[in-house]
Specification:
The protein is built from two helices and two strands; from the N terminus they run αβαβ. The N and C termini lie far apart (38 Å). The protein is an alpha+beta fold. Helix 1 runs parallel beside helix 2. The chain has one domain. Strand 1, helix 2 and strand 2 form a beta-alpha-beta unit.
Amino acid sequence: MYRVQCVKICTSIYGEMNYADFRCKLLQNAGRPAIVNVNIGTTMRGAIDDVDEIIKTLENCGFHDRFYIHCDGALSGLMVPFIEQVG
C-alpha cells in the first residue's frame, strides 16, 4: 500500500507478537521509520500485544522519534484500558 514495504513479525503460538523477532526486523531496517500495527485482542485467539514492550524495543533499537503505532482493539480494545495490570 502506498509503496510501503510490509515486514511481517512472527508470533507466539498464542498469537502475541514475538518481541525477539520484532527487534531483529527493526535492526534490519534501521534506516527507515517504523509503522507498527499492535493487536489488542485478535479475533482468533484474543492475543494482546504488550505496547510497553514494543515501545521499549523501538527506543532500544534507535527509533526514538521515528515510529508510529496503531492499536487495533478487535476483541479487548474496550476492556483493556480498565483492567489493572499485575506484574
